[in-house]
UniProtKB/TrEMBL annotation:
The lineage of its organism: Bacteria, Pseudomonadati, Pseudomonadota, Alphaproteobacteria, Hyphomicrobiales. Residues 206-275 form the GHMP kinase C-terminal domain. Its EC number is 2.7.1.148. One of its GO terms (biological process) is terpenoid biosynthetic process. The gene is ispE. One of its GO terms (molecular function) is ATP binding. The active site is at residues 11, 138. Belongs to the GHMP kinase family. IspE subfamily. It comes from Xanthobacter flavus. InterPro entries: GHMP_kinase_C_dom, GHMP_kinase_C_sf, GHMP_kinase_N_dom, IspE, Ribosomal_Su5_D2-typ_SF, Ribsml_uS5_D2-typ_fold_subgr. This is 4-diphosphocytidyl-2-C-methyl-D-erythritol kinase.
Length: 289
């Protein structure tokens, strides 16, 4: 069979409420998730032993290949589909690592999609979701990368949402922010809860009203992430000062920050200005959907 290929798009948390910490140590959350045009690339060559090769601009920061979530997902798939055909994966890393973009989770979900295609599984086969859930908290929402509400520990997903495409810019200053460190800084004790606003039950269909609804619900991990990596605050302030920016917020547990704009032209202008001032930063104008 020929080599199979797919994209692993960046996951963006437009909102991220930490509802509380469970007694098992995990955190319940509520998040409006969309996906970006920026992505890693993954290919699978059948009729080969299970393996992974990682290349690309951020490959070195991705850590040991043997510990990559792509291989963890493949092993979870094998557990759900005994006798499944596997193969050799090639991952081209383009997204920043430990950046709040769900890059590793999206890579793992891409691996499951390719393995599903190789083994003749339907995209909605429950074994794919089971393997995704066994691989990591963010993997299920990345399995079918479309806008959704994500709740629980990441395993409770709404149907896909018909949101208007949102133009914006993603900016990462190169500071890796480990998720565990951010949650430690959050300091929520087991059984503890956070109060805060929620998204409306029915999201507005217009872009301006949707952005206003998003702006009213924070990312609860932004303050602890800034405490861990103060450079994030510099990025937020830099983007918020740009005339094109309509909403500026950190994604996930950081350190990537997004700025929503009125349209693609405004996003491109903002990105050019930031990149000219900070050529070492990762800056991507994109559409979020």
């Amino acid at each position: 069979m020929e080599t199979l290929r797919t994209r692993a798009p960046a996951k963006i948390n437009l909102t991220l409420r930490i509802i509380g910490r469970r007694t098992d140590g995990f955190h319940d959350l509520a998040s409006l998730v969309v996906f970006s045009g920026a992505a890693d690339l993954l290919s699978l060559t059948p009729d080969a032993a299970l393996s992974l090769t990682v290349k690309g601009r951020t490959a070195a920061a991705a850590g040991p290949d043997a510990d990559n979530l792509v291989l963890r997902a493949a092993r979870a798939f094998s557990a759900e589909v005994p006798g499944a055909q596997l193969g050799a994966f090639l991952l081209e890393k383009r997204l920043p690592v430990a950046a709040g973009l769900g890059g590793g989770s999206s890579d793992a979900a891409a691996a499951l999609r390719l393995l599903g295609r190789l083994n003749g599984l339907a995209p909605d086969d429950p074994r794919l979701f089971a393997a995704a859930r066994a691989t990591g908290s963010d993997v299920p929402v990345c399995l079918d990368p479309r806008a959704r509400l994500m709740e629980g520990v990441g395993d409770v997903l709404s149907p896909p949402l018909a949101l208007p495409p949102l133009a914006g810019v993603l900016v990462n200053c190169g500071v890796a922010v480990p998720t565990a460190a951010v949650f430690r800084q959050l300091g929520l004790a087991p059984g503890g809860a956070f109060d805060g606003p929620s998204l409306p039950a029915v999201l507005p269909s217009g872009r301006a009203k949707l952005v206003a609804a998003i702006a009213a619900v924070p990312n609860d991990l932004e303050p602890p992430a800034v405490a861990v990596a103060p450079k994030i605050a510099e990025v937020i302030d830099r983007l918020a000062a740009q005339p094109e920016a309509r909403l500026v917020r950190m994604s996930g547990s950081g350190a990537t920050v997004f700025a929503l704009t009125d349209d693609c032209r405004a996003a491109a202008a903002l990105a050019r200005r930031v990149l000219a001032a900070e050529p070492d930063w990762w800056v991507k104008p994109t559409i979020l959907r």
